[in-house]
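RETRY 2/3 - previous attempt timed out on the joint model. Re-submitting the same 507-residue input unchanged.
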Amino acid sequence: MNKLTVIIDYQLGNLFSVKQACDRVGLNAIISSDKSDILKADALILPGVGAFAEAMTNFKKLDLIEPLKESVKAGKPLFGVCLGQQLLFTESEEFGSSKGLDLIPGVIKKFPAYSGANNLIKVPQIGWNHIYRKNVEWRETPLENVKENAYVYFVHSYYVEPANTQNILTQTNYSGIEYCSAVTNNKNIFATQFHPEKSGQLGLGIYKKWAELFNLVNNGK
Amino acid sequence: MSKTIRVIPRLDIKGPNVVKGIHLEGLRVMGKPVDFAKYYYETGADELMFMDVVASLYERNSLHDIISETARQIFIPLTVGGGLRTLEDIKMVLRAGADKVCINTAAIKDPNIISEAALRFGSSTIVVAIEAVKQSNGQYLAYTDNGREHTGVEVLEWAKRVNQLGAGEIVITSVDREGTGDGFDIDLVKRISEMVSIPVIAHGGAGSKEHVYDVIHRANCDAVSVASMLHYDYLMKHDTSAASQSEGNVEFLKSKRAFHNFKTATLGDLKNYLIEKGISCRPPHE
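RETRY 2/3 succeeded.
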């Protein structure tokens, strides 16, 4: 029997595509916003598209903050995607300041505003961009089989700025701004700003490697 | 630092079929949406766009099964448009498996749907399509219902407003060029790309690799939407007789007539050409 992966539904974002990717790599994944599912899960995926503050409000309403934090602190594997990555951090500067889950120290910043034809930085960044290494090796992470400078798919206006460089798994350069595009706590947390489930075969490979690293799928199934 | 350009095959859908018209009119049957979608996914599409081209006329919304079937097989973003009138319509399409929605008529009728949808589903989920028709005085006016309905709205003003209301992207279609293979309307695309702070997708007129390069190089757009030049290449190489024959003009398809105004190409040919010319885009086989 495959282990149980719970895709956390906090009423923001497209869970369908994350579920499709899980199915494709053989994960036994369910979508749930029930804290008992989070507590009994073998692994968690935190997806999400949308606003940071609204996400945290929904988390509180659903009473998911403590179950999630406890699960992760106890060593349960967690895969964050896009907003799901940002929520792991201490706080966001979006609409004043909002507190996050504080599982990785650092803050969320916004891309600078567009200032006309001479500064063609479009926000949101929507599209494919490169990921490359900073300090942390990709070996034994879900990126193990990914080549340096591979293209992955991004949709975002905000990015994470970890306090500690040892959390920075990848960096990306968007119109001259270099930012952190994937993080790890070097243990059970792995999270990406990009969408592996929208990054073609390469992205599916990231889900597959994550499942393998944490023994979430039976071999030969 | 050059930005990475997206190449987005666009599938116009009528009932169960992919169709293609000229100036968004005179639809011809091409084949099944899922077959085209899978082929483009496998050959290097950066995203896909489905437009239900008659939904808006008959208030019809029959795309959901096609969306779900497609979303299970492709792992790149899928944008769906055509006939989406309400927040509920948008929700249903997203739930069926679309990543983004594209609205035009509904936004013109009530611009507030843009901000409401952006708030509820996230800005980056909301793409606004603008169908521009050039007037004899050089002005561009926005049309709806695939270039049929005149709205009196001036395109540049409308684009600015769409941006302010919180749309995530704009698809700008030159109705005059659409389906002709005569090349993009560079001036139109450039003016909009440089005016708004959100990404702009150029659509309408791609007849060759050179046209695509031209609009990226000269008009500063963020993405290009391409249909006929890719579809016709696919048609010449594949047997699409499995396509549903219940709707549309299938005579054209059976005849496999030459598409004289198009220098057809595969996505791979197109992207390799762009890369050769110094455009940054994701290689076709990565």
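Confidence is low (pLDDT under 50) at residues 242-248 of chain B. Closing ticket.
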